[in-house]
């Protein structure tokens, strides 16, 4: 079974090094949480892995099984089995969500569970892609696309922000449905509450562009008790 | 015998008390002879005299602009092109128009300052202020002096940069200025020096201030920072009806220059200004331009973004009342990659006044990853007034994003009603809304300017409502 | 709000196309959809005088510039009567070495009170040698008016392209979707041959 292996990755953006020598491994069907304060570089890691035009990989490697992802264009990475859910998806008018989902759908893709889980109406699908969507609606659009593509590995950047309480409560179940089918997910967030509900298999603590610690859910409980500063500075001081 | 501001009777009265004192005033009209005369009186070096004469030849050949405001009222041969500094200040307070005197009263300009702005005072306490800052400047290698002195004291520096941003051939009025310029500021900031406090023309006030043909040159070396402020909100009375100034700015790599002008010439003046800056790599130039007075103003501050990563912002505000035409705008020319510029222009016309925005947004081939935005908003207070917008977007490079938006509207009825329901008179409410409309510019001004500005707007509005 | 609608194709136009139209009857209105594809005039001068109260004019222009086409389009609306309405929406997608110059003028005289007028001009540069120039002018002589314009010249947003690529869409496909987004409702005027360049909403 192929894993997603990130080794010694450093990424620079706008003249600054935003990700420093990060190594991570995600197994199929696993939920790996990447948690850290705002501005720590979590999104930068996601953008670097996917080849965003404004982020440049300085060194390191990203392999999906035997495939060297960094040698591919963004759409080739997607077709190799990767998916990236954006923190702030852009608005693209003129194409309906429904048409778009049909366009990007993988053969095995199926987003029915998302429609029922979030209780999404047909009329939502008739709207233009992300246009005029609230924060929560944009996240739902991302999740619909995630299920339509059924990737091997998905990176979800702050999927929880903007969602209302009811939708939030449904997400862990929806995502577990995906992992049971074999998808490995890297969940990027700064919300310990969301993590608690998600119950990830692995937790990596991220601060200032580096992974400070990798472990289990005990990291979450420590964060909830002490907040970010104490933990990261304590670790940095080691 | 000293008056209460320390200005002696003699200086105060010079030129109008004593009719026998010699007063130098050039004969009307402009000619090679008169230019040589002016240069001689100033004691200028040969190279500057030659520069003037070459510029005069260009002036004679050049056509008047075929676009813009109506300049038919200018008669080049009727004007006087040079009055010796002290003499121009020798005007009788009695000659100053009533409305100007009244404005000073309303805005709260102190007595002695009023006489200065009306041109009737020689040196107003400026020496005192200037000497204080002069000390700290010379220690840091900062040069801040008038242009006439700079030509003689720093010839190498001046020669290297004078006329390089705006050559005499640029337009007819730049040519005129190049031939007959007098006064203006010369500022040189050495590398790495960042001036915390704005330099004001006011500091080095001498009688050359508010001259007809001021020439200003600012050189900001690598990594330096300076904010220069000229003009004032108080209306400046001038018998000279043509003002053609030139301002050149050179911002070396990573330098930061902000140039703020608040113009409120009396309503008989044609104010035609050429202002341009060159921004080198990583530099940041800001033009803050406020046009309140004059009969006609034609002014389009521009920046040539010549170095990679350079940035420029222009903030322009214009108020045109009865009989006024403010034809202003901004030019941004991107010749280097990764550059950014923003223009925000706000104008208000009332009582038949006219504002025009004229802008140029240009991206040259090879200047990739450029982003430019222009926003111009115009408010028309009444049916008699007029607003025009003439922007141009010229893009020769694919990797660009240029955006432009403009709106013209009348003052918001809903907002007016809201304010009046809280007890404000129609005038107070209108001026509050106009002040709010101009806020992006007003907030960049030093505090005392800002206070005067708002009071001035209220005064102007009084003329428009009812 | 019924417009007398006409769709005009560039292939049917002469190299220099001039039209000077005056709306003289109360409430008279016109809507023209101009499609510039293939053979395109070198110069267009379209002037519409809204001389009658409540008259309305709407002009849309969609242009696909290819090869070495070089065109200058002048559209002027003169609002000279009360309660008039004007809309100009012009969008050009420029490939190869094409060059597009758009000059718009919205002029509202003192008699044009309560005019509601808007100009939108956008040029999308899709190749290294394409060039666009837009001159959106406004001359407004009365304050009782709603007048504005917007214009932009640029290329496709790289971040939008990246977003689409992360969903497995290749460069050409992403460009097609973004072109569709660019043209919006004006896309329906494009003839079938050009439809391939942009994403089709499945019926």
Describe this protein's structure.
The complex is a heterotrimer of chains A (238), B (466) and C (203). Chain A is an alpha/beta fold. Chain A has a single domain (4-237), classed as 3-Layer(aba) Sandwich (Rossmann fold). Helix content of chain A is 39%, strand content 27%. In chain A, helix 4 (112-118) runs antiparallel to helix 7 (165-180). The radius of gyration of chain A is 17 Å and the shape is globular. The N and C termini of chain A lie far apart (36 Å). The mean pLDDT of chain A is 89. Chain B has helices at residues 9-13, 32-42, 46-61, 85-89, 98-107, 111-117, 126-140, 147-153, 155-161, 172-180, 413-420, 426-437, 439-442, 447-462; strands at residues 143-146, 185-189, 199-200, 215-220, 225-231, 242-243, 246-251, 256-263, 270-279, 284-291, 296-299, 302-305, 311-320, 325-334, 340-349, 354-363, 370-380, 386-395, 400-410. Chain B is of the alpha/beta class. Chain B is built from 14 helices and 19 strands. In chain B, helix 2 packs antiparallel against helix 3 (46-61). In chain B, 28% of the residues lie in helices and 30% in strands. Chain B folds into 2 domains: 1-299, no CATH class; 413-466, no CATH class. Chain C has helices at 158-165, 171-183, 192-195, and strands spanning 4-9, 16-23, 29-36, 43-50, 56-65, 70-79, 85-94, 99-108, 115-125, 131-140, 145-154. Chain C is mainly beta. In chain C, the strands form 2 sheets. In chain C, strands 1-3-5-7-9-11 form a 6-stranded parallel beta sheet, covered by helices on one side. Chain C has a 5-stranded parallel beta sheet with strand order 2-4-6-8-10, with no helix packed on it. Chain C is globular. Chain C has 2 domains: 4-155, no CATH class; 157-203, no CATH class. The longest helix of chain C is centred in the C-terminal third of the chain and has 13 residues, at 171-183. Chain C is built from 3 helices and 11 strands, in the order E-E-E-E-E-E-E-E-E-E-E-H-H-H. The chains are: A alpha/beta (238), B alpha/beta (466), C mainly beta (203). At the B-C interface, strand 18 and strand 19 of B face strand 10 and strand 11 of C.
Question: In terms of topology, how is this protein built?
Answer:
The complex is a heterotrimer of chains A (238), B (466) and C (203).
Chain A: E1 4-13, E2 16-26, E3 31-35, H1 42-50, E4 56-64, E5 67-68, H2 74-79, E6 82-85, H3 97-104, H4 112-118, H5 122-125, H6 135-149, E7 153-157, H7 165-180, E8 184-189, H8 192-198, E9 202-207, E10 210-215, H9 218-237
Parallel strand pairs in A: 3-8, 3-9, 6-7, 7-8
Antiparallel strand pairs in A: 1-2, 1-4, 4-5, 9-10
Helix pairs in contact in A: 3-6, 4-7, 8-9
Chain B: H1 9-13, H2 32-42, H3 46-61, H4 85-89, H5 98-107, H6 111-117, H7 126-140, E1 143-146, H8 147-153, H9 155-161, H10 172-180, E2 185-189, E3 199-200, E4 215-220, E5 225-231, E6 242-243, E7 246-251, E8 256-263, E9 270-279, E10 284-291, E11 296-299, E12 302-305, E13 311-320, E14 325-334, E15 340-349, E16 354-363, E17 370-380, E18 386-395, E19 400-410, H11 413-420, H12 426-437, H13 439-442, H14 447-462
Parallel strand pairs in B: 2-4, 3-5, 4-7, 5-8, 6-9, 7-9, 8-10, 9-11, 9-12, 10-13, 11-14, 12-14, 13-15, 14-16, 15-17, 16-18, 17-19
Antiparallel strand pairs in B: 1-2
Chain C: E1 4-9, E2 16-23, E3 29-36, E4 43-50, E5 56-65, E6 70-79, E7 85-94, E8 99-108, E9 115-125, E10 131-140, E11 145-154, H1 158-165, H2 171-183, H3 192-195
Parallel strand pairs in C: 1-3, 2-4, 3-5, 4-6, 5-7, 6-8, 7-9, 8-10, 9-11
């Amino acid at each position: 079974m192929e894993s997603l292996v990130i080794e010694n990755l450093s990424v620079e953006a706008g003249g600054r090094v935003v990700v420093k020598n990060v190594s991570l491994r995600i197994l199929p069907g696993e939920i790996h949480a990447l948690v850290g304060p705002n501005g720590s570089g979590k999104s930068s890691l996601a953008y670097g892995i996917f080849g965003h035009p404004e982020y440049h990989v300085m060194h390191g490697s990203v392999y999906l099984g035997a495939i060297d992802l960094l040698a591919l264009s963004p759409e080739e990475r997607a077709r190799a089995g990767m998916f990236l859910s954006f923190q702030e998806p852009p608005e693209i008018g003129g194409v309906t969500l429904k048409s778009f989902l049909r366009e990007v759908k993988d053969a095995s893709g199926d987003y029915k569970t998302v429609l029922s889980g979030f209780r999404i109406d047909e009329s939502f699908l008739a709207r233009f892609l992300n246009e005029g969507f609230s924060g929560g609606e944009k996240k739902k659009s991302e999740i619909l696309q995630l299920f339509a593509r059924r990737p091997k590995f998905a990176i979800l950047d702050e999927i929880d922000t903007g969602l209302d309480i009811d939708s939030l409560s449904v997400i862990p179940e929806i995502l577990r449905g995906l992992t049971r089918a074999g998808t490995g997910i890297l969940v990027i967030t700064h919300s310990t509450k969301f993590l608690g509900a998600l119950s990830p298999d692995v937790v990596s603590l991220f601060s200032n562009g580096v992974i400070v610690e990798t472990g289990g859910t005990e990291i979450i409980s420590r964060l909830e008790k002490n907040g970010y500063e104490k933990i990261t500075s304590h670790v940095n001081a080691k | 015998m000293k008056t209460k501001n320390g200005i002696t009777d003699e200086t105060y009265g010079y030129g109008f008390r004593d009719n026998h004192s010699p007063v130098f005033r050039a004969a009307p009209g402009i000619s090679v002879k008169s230019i040589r005369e002016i240069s001689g009186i100033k004691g200028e070096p040969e190279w500057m005299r030659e520069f003037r004469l070459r510029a005069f030849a260009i002036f004679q050949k050049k056509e008047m602009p075929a676009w813009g405001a109506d300049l038919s009222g200018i008669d080049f041969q009727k004007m006087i092109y040079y009055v010796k500094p002290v003499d121009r200040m020798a005007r009788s307070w009695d000659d100053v128009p009533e409305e100007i005197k009244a404005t000073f009263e309303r805005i709260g300009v102190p007595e002695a300052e009023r006489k200065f702005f009306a041109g009737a005072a020689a040196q107003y306490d400026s020496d005192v202020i200037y000497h204080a800052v002069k000390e700290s400047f010379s220690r840091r290698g900062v040069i801040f002096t008038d242009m006439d002195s700079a030509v003689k004291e720093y010839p190498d520096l001046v020669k290297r940069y004078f006329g390089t941003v705006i050559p005499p051939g640029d337009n007819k009025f730049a040519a005129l200025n190049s031939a007959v310029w007098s006064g203006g500021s010369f500022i040189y900031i050495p590398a790495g020096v960042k001036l915390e406090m704005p330099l004001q023309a006011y500091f080095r006030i001498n009688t050359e201030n508010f001259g007809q043909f001021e020439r200003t040159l600012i050189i900001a070396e690598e990594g330096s920072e300076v904010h220069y402020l000229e003009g004032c909100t108080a209306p400046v009375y001038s018998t000279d009806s043509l003002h053609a100034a030139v301002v050149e700015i050179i911002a070396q790599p990573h330098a930061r220059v902000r140039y703020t002008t608040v113009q409120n010439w009396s309503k008989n003046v044609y104010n035609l200004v050429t202002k341009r800056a060159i921004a080198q790599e990583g530099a940041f130039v800001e033009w803050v331009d406020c046009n309140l007075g004059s009969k006609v103003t034609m002014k389009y501050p521009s920046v040539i973004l010549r170095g990679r990563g350079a940035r420029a912002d222009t903030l322009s505000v214009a108020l045109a009342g009865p009989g006024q035409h403010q034809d202003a705008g901004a030019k941004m020319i991107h010749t280097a990659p990764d550059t950014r510029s923003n223009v925000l222009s706000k104008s208000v016309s009332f009582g038949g006044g006219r504002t025009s925005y004229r802008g140029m947004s240009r991206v040259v081939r090879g200047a990739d990853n450029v982003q430019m935005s222009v926003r111009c908003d115009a408010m028309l207070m009444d049916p008699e007034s007029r607003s025009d917008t003439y922007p141009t977007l010229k893009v020769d490079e694919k990797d660009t994003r240029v955006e432009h938006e403009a709106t013209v509207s009348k003052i918001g009825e809903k907002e007016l009603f809201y304010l009046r329901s809280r007890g404000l008179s129609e005038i107070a409410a209108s001026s509050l809304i106009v002040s709010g409309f101009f806020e992006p510019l007003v907030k960049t001004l030093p505090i005392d300017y800002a206070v005067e500005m708002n009071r001035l707007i209220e005064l102007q509005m009084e003329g428009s409502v009812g | 709000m019924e417009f007398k609608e006409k769709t005009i194709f560039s292939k049917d136009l002469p190299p220099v196309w001039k039209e000077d139209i005056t709306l003289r009857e109360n409430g008279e209105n016109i809507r023209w959809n101009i499609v510039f594809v293939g053979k395109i005039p070198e110069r267009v001068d379209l002037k519409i005088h809204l001389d009658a109260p409540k008259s309305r004019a709407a002009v849309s222009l969609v242009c696909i510039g290819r090869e070495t086409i070089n065109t200058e389009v002048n559209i002027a609306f003169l609002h000279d009567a009360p309660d008039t309405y004007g809309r100009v929406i012009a969008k050009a997608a420029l490939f190869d070495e094409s060059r597009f110059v758009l000059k718009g003028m919205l002029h509202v005289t003192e008699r044009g009170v309560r005019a509601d007028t808007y100009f939108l001009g956008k040029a999308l540069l899709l190749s290294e040698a394409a060039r666009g120039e837009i001159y959106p002018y406004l001359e407004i002589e009365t304050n009782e008016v709603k007048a504005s314009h917007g214009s932009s010249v640029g290329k496709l947003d790289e971040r939008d392209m990246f977003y689409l690529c992360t969903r497995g869409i290749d460069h050409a496909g992403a460009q097609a979707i973004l072109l569709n987004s660019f043209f919006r409702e004006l896309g329906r005027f494009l003839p079938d041959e050009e439809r391939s360049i942009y994403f089709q909403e499945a019926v």
